[in-house]
Amino acid sequence: MEDELINAIAAIIASKCEHTIFIDEVGEDFERPSFFIYRISDLDTVMNRWTYNTNSIIQIVYFSPLDDHNNIASTADQTNTIKIIKHAFMASMGVKFGDKFAYLDKTNTDYTGDKDIFLQLTFNITNGTRKEYEEAQNTQTMNEFNFKVKE
Fold first, then answer.
1. Burial (Cβ within 10 Å: 0-12, 13-18, ≥19) of residue 123
2. Which pTM value belongs to this model?
3. Of 53, 65, 77, 114, which sits with the fewest C-beta atoms within 10 Å of its C-beta?
């Protein structure tokens, strides 16, 4: 299934870095440096009858180059690369995908167990359901009113 939000995030990263970007999965012996983008979770909250909010957490892992001993070659490269990516999202306050906009709520940066660095992005997306409801109801509208006026 295609994920428009993740594709839009990948496009922003591609505009800032020329590294390979994995979206679906990372196989064995993948190339470095590269990125892996995946969705951690979605939480939907009903706001009213026609609107709900989706809180999405997306994680971006940066697999930085390794040295001859399979250790991270440069922690400065890690932090600088993640900082560039993070500021790209912070400057635009979110991501446009399809006809929607995901507003950036917060970011988190940390290291994986393998000493690679990651950036978590938490987005808020407001979704409307009124159009889908009205299309599903398939009701006919009234065209004309006739009023009799007493004189």
1. buried
2. 0.80
3. 114
Tens-digit pLDDT string for the chain (151 aa): 469 999 999 999 999 999 999 998 888 888 899 999 999 999 999 988 888 999 999 999 999 998 888 888 888 999 999 999 999 999 999 999 988 999 999 999 999 888 899 999 999 999 887 666 565 566 566 667 677 777 6
CA distance to 10, 42, 45, 139, per residue, from 105 (Å):
18, 14, 15, 39
Amino acid at 61: V
Integer-rounded Cα Rg, in Å, for the chain is 23
Within a 10 A sphere around the Cβ of 5, how many other Cβ atoms? 22
Rounded Cα distance, 101 and 85, in Å: 18
Rounded-to-integer distance, Cα 27 and Cα 61, Å = 14
**Rounded Cα gap, residues 21 and 27, in angstroms:** 12
